[in-house]
Amino acid sequence: MQYKSIKKEEWDNTLENLLLSYAIFAGIPNDASQDYEELRAVDIPKIIYNKPKPATSLKSFFLPVKENVTSENVVKERIIIGIPNCDIEALSILDEIYLDEDFPDINYRERRNNTILISTDCIGIQEHCHCLTYDIMPFSTNTADLAVIFLNGTMILRIITGKGEGFLSTVFPAAIALEDEDILSVIEKEHHATETLLSSANKGLPDYKKTGNLVSGANADMWKRHSARCVSCGACTTICPTCTCFLLIDKPGFEKVKQMDACQYPGFERVAGGGDGLFELPNRFRNRYMCKYVWKPGKFRSTACTGCGRCIEACIGKINKNEIFMELAK
Amino acid sequence: MVNGRNIYKPIMASLTDVIDESPLIKTFVLVPENGFSFKTGQFIELSVDGIGEAPFTPSSSPLITEKLEVTVMKTGYVTECMHKLKPGVFMGIRGPFGRGYPIESFYGKEVLILGGGCGLAPIRSLLYALEGIKDKLIKVTLCYGSKTPADCIYKPLFDRLNKTEKFEAFRTVDKADEGWDGSVGVVTTLLNRIKYDITKSIAVVCGPPIMMKFGTIRLLEMGYKDEQIYLSMEKNMSCGLGKCGHCMMGEFFVCKDGPVFTYNELKNTPDIWK
Amino acid sequence: MKLTAEDLKKISFFEGYTDKQLNTLTRISTIREFKVKEILFEQYDVLSEAAVLFEGKLSLGISLAKEKRIHLGTVEEGQLFSWSAVFSPHISTAWVMAITPAKVISINAEELNKEFVMDCDFGFKTMSKIAQTLSHRLSDTRFQLMNQLNI
Q: Which of A27, A294, B235, C52 sits CB 3.0–4.6 Å from A54 for a disulfide?
């Protein structure tokens, strides 16, 4: 892979100039940890690099919580910086669903086309990170346009897509090719260190395929027990980078509003005649796991869980899916 | 500027007639603004302005493109609003969606159709399509059951089919009333009297989930193989095009991978009859 | 109307019998005719004749109380009914009524049983056909149950 480097000062200055023509989003500190904000010039020095991860995923950048899908939606060109690879990988399944050949979602396509994705390599992990268990590396080598690592006052950029290369050479002409093996070796060491931390923190956690088998075979009693603290708040599905179920709501003038929905909300499968396959809470609870680990893998090439761990952090009932999987694996 | 067809935007269709089929069922005759074609077994998302949208399989012939007929049972909020509509208004149509009946693969076959309740609506469309290719078929047998005699829609259809070459139609009811002198019993009782060559036969089942369940069981008992049985599945739908997730049935999107499936495709999917 | 072996050959229920066996059947059978709404027999009646519907349509059901008939099924042309006559306790499990003018092939059950002893092949074939009829009825009843309970 090709690398370029640029001094941080130049990087920051260029970003400031880019604010005139792009909306720029990046992870910056907040009260809790960090999250994406639309940047003003003063925010640029606050951008967090190398450190996982923003509280929310990329999902709402491409699939707003609520949008009118029958009106013209103008999408400003934008750059998103500091995306962890788990969120980048999550885009793959979103692309498969929303950019399919038969019925491409033009609003989603427009947003994808108008966005430059700059991921950041994770040096270090957060408490519930487990991307590696699902064969997802803590750094990007595809889908993102560029990846950035902040090292010793320098921005190191991994060029991933042609779009990223074009963007870099046009907008950051001062970036120079990096061939220094020592620096590349440091980056590789940091990758290994992060991978070691991930392996250690997630010892015994079954991989994606095994998880699917375990979830398939779990009995009704298990689901009943683990769903006892669930209140169907839908925090897990809202925060999840790959959960994208929605409802189409009719408005006057045959307009349609697309609003995020979730199988965790009662009534998701209810038919007009009254039947509802997910009426019982344990069934609803189980549905999300079956969908993510058994059904979507049967249907799509891309993964439906990238191991970001946000569902574990978000759950108000303190339900930890990894603890459930470890119990099933025993 | 967003380019390309907007998959969420309906085309307009003028409601030209409303036919009362039964106290709870009406057929809407729609003329889409630009002509509309569908394959039998596919469905549309039909909307009432500002109220809501619901999926329906047209009950008219797929060979007619200037208009289509949709038979609607009053079951919930949207269908109740639909039932209040008068000719002259516009409705929205998105579609056609889904995988319909593969009628080309019915060539050279005996087609056995097992229908129940409102399932007769999509079956009527299939029958029209099969009439169009009847030279290529051995025969078509319709076995239909409704809860009571009054619940049967398209009553003239049965006499007409029995007078059509290569077609025969039988009816039964779960519960008879005073004037009923026809068969009584669930629809599978009609299968006891039909003659069929299992090696040349395919079966189509369409109706309420419970009827489809025991209909399939009966067909398997008769010797039909999993891949010879075609089912038209129903689920709560929203987008109709494989994105919103509401109609997922195991790994399948009923709206995109179906609604027509062979039993072979579904036999390992749990809870398909809920 | 005099029943002949040729008449029986037209009815699928009698497929597989030899000409000799068909002749036996014609010897021990009579054609009975019924008017619309005529009751052929009531639930709990002791039956002496097995029957195959030759023409018309019959309804079949159970009685919850005197005069309260629950119509549960239909006997179509070519179908066997009144099979309870063939074996003990010979008590009908349902009432049967003609809903159109009907012609029924009534087979003397006592004579049938005597023939079973003389011709085991005939006995086996006949009992197989009865078993098949009951199997279909059982299947249909199970589906009625599924339908009502929505399971």
A: A27
CB contact under 8 A, C73 and B182: no
Residue pair B191/B143 in contact (Cβ under 8 Å)? The answer is yes
Residues 233-262 of A with CB under 8 A from B: 244-254, 256, 258, 261
The better pLDDT of the pair C80, A273 is held by C80
Strand partners for A150:
A155
Residues B27 and B87 in one domain: yes
Helices A321-329 and A208-217 sit at what angle, rounded to 10 degrees?
A: 80
Same domain assignment for residues A25 and A173: yes
**pLDDT tens-digit series, residues A138-190:** 999 999 999 999 999 999 999 999 999 999 999 999 899 998 899 999 999 99
* Confidence check: pLDDT of C54 > 50: yes
**Structural domain count of chain B:** 2
Partners of B188 on chain C (C-beta within 8 Å) are 139-140, 143
- Of B267, B239, B271, B99, which Cα lies nearest the Cα of A291? B271
CATH number (domain holding residue B92): 2.40.30.10
3-state secondary structure C42-60: CCCCECCEEEEEEECCEEE
Whole-complex ipTM? 0.91
The residue in chain B having the minimum alpha-carbon distance to the alpha carbon of residue A264 is B246
Q: What is the DSSP letter of C93?
A: S
Alpha carbon distances (Å) from B270 to A7, A210, A270, B29, B273 = 58, 20, 17, 37, 8
Provide DSSP, A102-166.
SS--HHHHHHHHTEEEEEE--SS--TT--GGGGT--SS-SSSSSEEEEEETTEEEEEE-SHHHHH
What is the domain-level CATH number for residue C105?
2.60.120.10
A70 touches B at CB < 8 Å: yes
**Which residue in A107, A251, A271 is closest to B236 by CB distance?**
A271
- The residues facing B184 across adjacent strands are B173
- Among candidates B10, B54, B243 on the partner chain, residue whose Cβ is nearest the Cβ of A105: B243
What's the mean per-residue pLDDT of chain A?
95
For chain B, the average pLDDT equals 93
pLDDT of res. C66: 65
Give residue-wise pLDDT tens across range A213-254: 999 999 999 999 999 999 999 999 999 999 999 999 999 999
- Residue B140 neighbours by CB under 8 Å, 6+ apart: B110, B111, B113, B127, B130, B134, B161, B166, B167, B168
Name the residue range of residue C78's domain. 5-149
**Residue segments in chain B with a per-residue pLDDT below the cut of 50:** 1-2
Indicate left, alpha or beta for A152 from its phi (over 0: left) and psi (-120 to 50: alpha). left
Of the candidates B6, B235, B245, the beta carbon closest to that of A245 is on B245
Closest C-alpha among B99, B112, B100 to residue B228 = B112
Burial of A318 (0-12, 13-18, 19+ CB in 10 A): exposed
Residue B1: per-residue pLDDT = 40
Q: Which of A201, A226, A258 is the last residue of a domain?
A: A201
- Which of A214, A230, A198 has the alpha carbon at shortest distance from A289? A214
Percent residues over pLDDT 90 in chain B? 84
Q: Which of B113, B131, B110, B132 is nearest to B230 (CA)?
A: B113
Could you tell me the two tokens for A81? 């910086």
To the nearest 10 degrees (0 to 180), the angle between helices A85-98 and A106-113 is: 140
Domain count, chain C: 1
Quote the pTM value: 0.90
Sheet holding A66-68, edge to edge: A66-68, A255-260, A246-251
Give pLDDT, residue C65: 72
Query: Domain span at residue A119?
Result: 2-201
Neighbours of A293 (CB within 10 A): 25
Instruction: Name the neighbours of B, counting chains with at least 3 Cβ pairs within 8 A.
Output: A, C
